[in-house]
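Q:
Just now I want nothing more than another pair of eyes on a protein record. Here is the record:
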Amino acid sequence: MTSASQQYPPAEPVLVHQRLACTPQAASRARRIVAEVDWPDIDTPILLASELVANAIRYSGSEWLDLIIGLTIDGELHLQVIDEGRGDTTPHLRRVDGNAEAGRGLHLIKRCAERWGFMMDDAGVTVWCDIADAPPESRQVDLVTVCPEDAW
């Protein structure tokens, strides 16, 4: 399991730094950008980038967001989304009932990433996650765990 952290490790080298308009189209644009990265299992980074961007669109009240993709010193893929931080909430795991249509994005990130976290400062809100190139079997996404059966 991963846990949220207020600190985030620097990603060097930075592979991509792209500013996107904070519109619903930003999520699909982010998926296309991540899909171009050379990574063994690109589906997980595509999913997690989409969730990070969707959360920024939904909660930040920003006009723009930055998508940054890099490599950690341990060779993990580092994704981060920075927004202007105009929203009135901090990133947190939400308790969702089985019929909720939203609220599971950070649960997916927690389950699929090696670690994740956020930082808030004068520049805005940064939410990030690190993804291993070969997730252990125990980290494979089990939708029943992330989204209980009664949620369907």
Remarks:
- The helical segments are 25-35, 43-59, 105-112, 143-146.
